[in-house]
Design brief:
By secondary structure, the protein is mainly alpha-helical. The chain has one domain: Arc Repressor Mutant, subunit A, CATH 1.10.10.10. It has three helices and two strands. The protein has a two-stranded antiparallel sheet. It is globular, with a radius of gyration of 15 Å.
Amino acid sequence: MREFERITFNQKVMGGKACIRGMRVTVSLVVNLVANGMNTEEIIEAYPYLQPDDIRQALRFAAWLAEETVHPIELAS
């Protein structure tokens, strides 16, 4: 996933969830903040160690995940 160089996974950081640059800031947190109306400037004010590219890449990563195809599995009765 070279196109998502700011997104990291480490079992010792947030249980292996997708995080921003190895920090304890998850992609899901960033997406949730945007979904609840915060803009980039407000997020950076609340989390000054983030950069605008971190927020953009978190959103791109979430969009990429949403493009995945789900194939339901039928359970035997």
